[in-house]
Structure formats: structure tokens, C-alpha cells
Design a protein that fits this description.
The chain is of the alpha+beta class. Helix content is 18%, strand content 23%.
């Protein structure tokens, strides 16, 4: 099973099993770390905002314009590492990725 490292809002890091083929949001939503994912992955609410560890951020496809628009409206947006986890496909190649749950805004 692939792995993902998740830093919750309290700063605690968790090593979780992650199934390739799911969106990162789908994996996080099942955990109790604060990802609400209210829109269910439609890229319309930003309640799945995460920070991707800088060493991994460059390995992801660039955000599309609709994701970028939502991200830029967030007060805790970080240009290099902010992503909506509903827009990131978790693949075997991403096993070991580290994400931090962004503050609830």
C-alpha cells in the first residue's frame, strides 16, 4: 500500500495508507484531520486546501485556472505550495508525499 504523510492542524504528523487512484481529498476526508471537502471534489469550495511539502510540489501538475482562482482568494494562500486536494490525483508515484492541512478559514 502506498503512504502519505499528513500534518494535521495541531502540527502532528501522521503516516497513513493511501490508495492510488483516489484524489488526495478523498483520502484526507476519511481521516479526522479537518478536511471537510464540502463540495465533494467539484473545485468550488476550497475546504480541502492543503500545503504540499516543497520537495513534492514541483512533482505535481500545475493547478488549472479554476483551482488557482479559488486558492488566490484564500487568506492563507501560499503561491508555491497551496493546492486543493480535490484536484490532486494520488498515484503510486506520489507514495511518500507530505501534505499539511491548511488553517480553517
Amino acid at each position: 500500500m502506498a503512504r502519505m504523510f499528513v500534518v494535521d492542524r495541531d502540527g502532528k504528523e501522521h503516516d497513513v495508507e493511501a490508495k492510488p487512484g483516489l484524489k488526495v481529498m478523498e483520502i484526507l476526508r476519511e481521516l479526522d484531520y479537518g478536511v471537510a471537502a464540502i463540495c465533494g471534489g467539484l473545485c468550488s469550495c476550497a475546504t480541502c486546501h492543503v500545503y504540499v511539502d516543497p520537495s513534492w510540489a514541483g512533482r505535481l501538475p500545475k493547478p488549472q485556472s479554476d483551482e488557482l482562482e479559488l486558492l488566490k482568494e484564500l487568506p492563507d494562500y501560499k503561491e508555491a505550495t497551496s493546492r486543493l486536494s480535490c484536484q490532486v490525483d494520488f498515484t503510486e508515484a506520489l507514495s511518500g508525499i507530505k501534505v499539511e492541512i491548511a488553517p480553517d478559514t
